[in-house]
Amino acid sequence: MRVSDGPATATVVREFDDNALLALLLGPHNVNLERIERHLGVALNTRGNAVSASGTAAAAEDALQVLDGLYALARRQGHIETADIDTAVRMSRHTAAGIDGEDLVLRTRKRHIAPRTPTQAEYVAAMNRQSLVFGLGPAGTGKTYLAVAKAVEMMARGEVDRIILSRPAVEAGERLGFLPGDLKEKVDPYLRPLYDALYDMLPGDQVMKKLTAGEIEVAPLAFMRGRTLANSFIILDEAQNTTAMQMKMALTRMGEHSRMVVTGDMSQIDLPSGVRSGLKDALEVIAGMEGVSFVHFTDRDVVRHDLVTRIVRAYDRVERERKGNTEPT
Predict the structure, then answer these.
(1) In this predicted model, what pLDDT tens digit does every residue of 168-191 receive, in sequence order?
(2) Residue 324 CB neighbours (<10 A)
(3) Which residue did the predictor score with more confidence, 264 or 315?
């Protein structure tokens, strides 16, 4: 590596020893380098088997870290996708104390899942350490997906005996009798995202086997009432749509050697007007309690299509404007 400094810029040059991997790193017609340039505000140039990054000292070092990370990824998986570039850029400035160097990769039967944003890394680290974790923020940030991955990993290691996945069926008010079909057909539409995550991490026959054996249970929140769940990994999804009483009930289901992850988005409350969200209530009641972590995601953590991030930001902006217009003067 060679570094030359100007008045306000730096140039970092990295040489790569494998031309085939370098071609994967660059992408067709250097398209990968162009994406890194747009993200970090640097100029990237190639000469032979070397890539130079020019910009502010911090940006040039970030670019070098991204290039090194993507080169190592190309060696491991044999290809580089657009999402890999975005992940490397997001993580390049991640220096949260106590997280760097920790193994944050979640290993499931079908795939290994690594955090794609600094907040996701914080979230996984919290699930590694704490008995109760709240993941809070907008859709598309990986709150539920990572929680399911952690649960599947812990079951594979024999650290928990059961996985309990639950959400409040708010749209039906948890009064499901008027819906057609048997109980499973009534509640499945509300629980489909949880099934989707499971099938993404386990072979289909294994999902069905564990569901049949009761090792994995996917059920509406009302079905947790009166139970004590020991040696279990419990995920309460869409928790903003619980009432205060439901939230208290859910949190007190934890038994010995159990973990719980509660996810929710306070901007997506579907409760009837005047009903206080149990998630909002819990954030006030147990704030600062030992053994509990609160991880707050933002639109910067949205890892779906780029357009989803812009949509989330647009809605947030309009909501702030509307609130400002309704405030008394």
Answers:
(1) 875 444 454 444 555 555 556 667
(2) 8
(3) 264
CA distance 149 to 12: 38
User: Are 247 and 239 a contacting pair, CB within 8 Å?
Assistant: yes
Q: What is residue 260's predicted lDDT score, i.e. its pLDDT?
A: 97
Residues 6 or more apart in contact with residue 224 via CB below 8 angstroms = 164, 166, 249, 250, 253
Q: How many CB atoms lie within 10 A of CB 236?
A: 27
Residue that is written with structure tokens 């994406």 in the block: 35
Q: Which of 20, 19, 74, 81 is nearest to 48 (CA)?
A: 19
Amino acid residing at 307:
L
Closest CA to 279 of 246, 324, 233, 312: 246
Higher-confidence position of 62 and 151: 151
241-276: burial string, b at 16+ Cβ within 10 Å, e else: bbbbebbebbbebbeeebbbbbbbbeeebebeeeee
String of DSSP letters for 59-126? HHHHHHHHHHHHHHHHHHHS---HHHHHHHHHHTT---TTTTTS---EE-SS-EE--SSHHHHHHHHH
pLDDT category at 116 given cuts 50, 70, 90 is: confident
Amino acid identity, position 233: F
Residue-wise pLDDT tens digits, 91-100: 776 544 445 5
Cα gap 261→235, rounded to integer Å: 5
User: In the chain, how long is the greatest CA-to-CA distance?
Assistant: 72
Q: Which two tokens stand for residue 155?
A: 């079951």
Residue 30: exposure state from Cβ atoms within 10 A (0-12, 13-18, ≥19): middle
Contact 195, 220 (CB under 8 A): no
The pairing of beta strand 259-264 with beta strand 132-136 = parallel
CA atoms of 22 and 75, how far apart (whole Å): 10
Residue 291 pLDDT greater than 50, yes or no: yes
CA–CA gap between residue 249 and residue 243 (Å, rounded): 10
Residue 89: exposed, middle, or buried by beta-carbon count in 10 A (0-12, 13-18, 19+)?
A: buried
Chain centroid, CA 326 distance in Å: 33
